[in-house]
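Appendix B: complex inputs.
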Amino acid sequence: MCLAIPVQVTQLLDGDMARVTLDGVGKIISLALVEDVRVGDYVILHVGYALNKLDPEEAEETLRLFAEAGQIAGAGA
Amino acid sequence: MTLQRPKHRKLDIRNGRVDLSHGSGGRAMAQLIAEIFFPAFANDLLAQGNDQATFDVPAGRMAMTTDGYVVSPLFFPGGDIGSLAVHGTVNDLAMSGAKPLYLSASFILEEGFPLADLLRIAQSMGAAAREAGIKIVTGDTKVVERGKADGVFISTAGIGVAPEGIALSGDRAKPGDAIVVSGTLGDHGVAIMSSRENLQFETAILSDSAALHGLTACMLEACGPHLRLMRDPTRGGLAATLNEIAHQSGVGIRIAEDALPIRPQVAAACELLGLDPLFVANEGKLVAFVAPDAAEALLAAMRAHPLGREAALIGHVVADDHRFVQMATRFGGGRIVDWLSGEQLPRIC
Amino acid sequence: MKYVDEYRDGKLARAIAAKIAAEARQDRAYRFMEFCGGHTHAIARYGLEDLLPHNVRMIHGPGCPVCVLPMGRMDDAIKLAQNPDITLCTYADLMRVPGSGDLSLIKAKAAGADVRMVYSTLDALRIAREEPHRKVVFFAIGFETTTPPTAMAILAARKEGLKNFFVFCNHVLTPAAIEAIVGGESQEKVALDGFVGPAHVSTVIGTKPYHAFAENYRKPVVIAGFEPLDVMQAILMLARQINEGRHVVENQYIRAVTVDGNLKAKAFVAEVFETRETFEWRGLGFIPDSALRLREEFSEFDAEKIFGVETVAAKDNPACECGAILRGVKKPVDCKLFGTVCTPETPMGSCMVSSEGSCAAHWTYGRFRDAQPLERQAS
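Resulting structure:
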């Protein structure tokens, strides 16, 4: 359930709306559920609404954990 | 004393609309045909003005096909219903190995349809036909009351001729055969969806709508005897085509996800809508099954043609009584690529 | 796609798989339920089961709102759509879901009902604005993720004074359902060792609501993103908790999920909705405090009240094993109906209704595993 995807905000529009992009595919969505969103931020898009801002530092951290798990496994295998 | 020919005003293309008289068989219909279709399709056989076209038949096996076009919207990025009605039927002929020769075109027009749009569609058909080197030699026009059609429906039939010795068919796939696609998947479907009112998104993706008989001629020349079959993965996408062939030939099919050519924007649009590019329609792509030893030669021939530049080897045929189409995922797992159940609709979950 | 592709790296997945295989103890089984259909979809679509060691098994949960919507409510929606004054707006997921009597919205539409597929509540609002003579009913389904957009639509309609916009509310609550699976009234044994917790539901509700559950039932919960690497990592984290005898809530999806979730979204939801005493989940039965309805002060938007909806419970085929499958006690192939009379074209039970249901996912993506071993293809 709950198909949602990270998209980048490219333009803030009137009425809590924004233009976003996913690899060059643009769409106009609502920012009514989130706060302090700026151009360049990534938000999680679900049924036309941004559900949350994506935290770039935590995203890096997750990737670092993947790499760590992978390396240790690689070394042990 | 000589009788004066009554003067008719020309069609008001800019503001005029199709009305019921344009389908009545009377003067209005004749005028519509004379001012819109004849100039747009301009060719000697049509110009004879008969209810049928007659022509000599070249040697070889005849191929014949028919298809109806009801696309919405009528005009979309990269094409329109007119060019599609030519390309689709040309491609169905070309997949048999035939050289397409002649088309018929039948129009069902909705009362109130703007003449300007009709002219644009007819001109687009004419241009597509000229580019493909074929002729639209006969046609028909009907008008239905407002609300009984969606602007315009077009039905085209085509005939072509296949050279002696070429017998491509969906039941000829054999274990070991290589499977090749001619280019990126899902472009047409995504272009159409991007212009639908209730889905609106912005993308530079154009429909891939194109006539493929130039490409198929190159493929036949390069490895005709080794080609088992060709098919264009239109509605239902690559998934439907592969399942059709697995069933027709009684074989299994194995493809590799990371070999599938898919444009990043198409992948992104599919992510947004919850669709799978494997099920999204194409209108200018083909899938070919070929004997394994000829696969490299076939790919080289395809890549040398503008419509096959991104051709890719995507998998092979195996013996499998279940006739499963299976895909090795990019992840190293496996999954079935099934028929689509129902129509593919955008998902929220 | 940034923040997407990095989480679909097959090489890393195989490395994490090796790690799971190395750490999973050979003397025991690990049975994890992914609650969400989004996880089920990722597992099926990327073939994750082939990467897991034989003693780690994923059980697909009920986390697909289309699957758990009881047939009686589907009948209600179809009845609403058949009302000549009503334009029913629905997410496309619901178009083919059968009600009782072999009807569906797509069939009702074919018979003349005004049913429109929408991508967002914003579209439903637009239709209501553009067609003031129509009574526009939005068929609201979904978990906590999908509820805030419905709340926003109702608040917008009130602000604009839209008098022809209504909501048929079927929003349900995730923690209540998870609890029902493990601790419910059912006499059936539950065979689960831990949970992969919801991704986007948790972006809204945060990690807190799962703590009591993990503590009370002594089951670890790892909230995970919907990308395949997220799922793999969550499985590793669950296996570690089991090995270490822990049962706490951990958050793998830190890039989008916080402890408190989205406070603004939660406030909108609380303003518009209140909890129902009980609500039926297809395959799981009635679960207390597991769904939402519009508050009294929003009655003028409540399709249930305005159009007098009275749900009549409709029974699933008695041979349907969805309940046992959702509890992890049975597999799809254990059901007599699976793949015979029950297929995605003609679903008989909740697990086959949407592509995210466990039976539909197994049928559509994984049934080759019942038939023969996968022939690996060099890539």
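Chain C has a mean pLDDT of 91.
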